[in-house]
Amino acid sequence: MTNNEMPPALELHDVSVSYHKKPVLYGVDMALPAGSLAGLIGPNGAGKSTLIKAAMGLLPVHSGWVKFFGEPLEGVRKRVGYVPQREEVDWDFPVSVMDVVLMGRYGHLGWLRRPGKADRRVAEESLEKVGMLPFRDRQISNLSGGQQQRVFLARALAQDSDLYLMDEPFAGVDAATEKAIITLLKEWREKGKTILVVHHDLTTARDYYDRLVLLNMRVVASGPTADVFTMELLQKTYGGRLTILSDVAAEAQRAEDGVKI
């Protein structure tokens, strides 16, 4: 089966979500092809994190439906990984780095089985991949923000999912960690994984992702980055706030002019 014949890795149809009767997402339609590295961008309050959480069943969907690989989440949960915002995790919980990464193996084991040698080997390899193996016995509360995010990525690696939904993995990390994260995500894409990332930095979005979803309570545009990262579509998404981002606006205009040529 070719990529064109495969169902989307993630598909939302007419999805609406409200907080306390206040609409946050309206009639969202989007389809993310398998094998994509996509950025989900939009202004603050646009509903980016809400979309991720609603897709994962962490928030109720008031209308529409969500499918993963053509099926409801319950049927393919093992194939879907979720990396929440770092602020949503209780980092004071008394577990070690290795404990956190081993949690990524429970989808393969089931909750009644304990991780074995093979699982520990996978966890160690995952920690080594993100440069955190020397910290495997350290309590997670004693890590820096960047180190905590690397541990999250190691857990995702150990989970070995086909699709990952990541909520702001670059937030609060140093430049070296950001570089390590995007390098790893591009490696996953080359291996056929699909990744959707909530992203805030417009100055890097064009270079990081092969696809973009522009969201402002509704999907403004979704598609290949070269088609979507245009001044017109960004202006529709961000409104007057885009004028503040003069460098980004100028880059988008240059890219658009280049396409026209």
Distance between the termini: 36 Å
The quaternary state of the protein chains shown equals single chain
Widest beta sheet: strand line-up: 5-6-7-3-8-9
Could you give the count of β-strands? 9
Q: How does the major sheet shape up?
A: 6 strands, mixed
Structural class: alpha/beta
* Mean pLDDT over all positions: 87
Unreliable sequence segments:
none
Q: Give helix and strand order, one letter per element, not per position.
A: EEEHEHEHHHHEHEHEEHHH
* Secondary structure tally, helices: 11
Overall 3D form:
globular
Helical coverage, percent range: 25-40%
Question: How many whole angstroms does the radius of gyration measure?
Answer: 19 Å
Strand content: 15-25%
Describe this structure in words.
The chain is an alpha/beta fold. 38% of the residues lie in helices and 22% in strands. The chain contains 11 helices and 9 strands. It has helices at residues 48-55, 73-76, 97-102, 106-109, 117-129, 145-159, 175-190, 202-208, 225-228, 231-238, 246-260; strands spanning 10-19, 22-32, 37-41, 63-68, 80-83, 163-167, 194-198, 211-215, 219-224. A 6-stranded mixed sheet has the order 5-6-7-3-8-9, with helices on both faces. The chain is globular, with a radius of gyration of 19 Å. It starts with 9 loop residues before the first strand and ends with a helix. The model has no long low-confidence stretch (mean pLDDT 87).
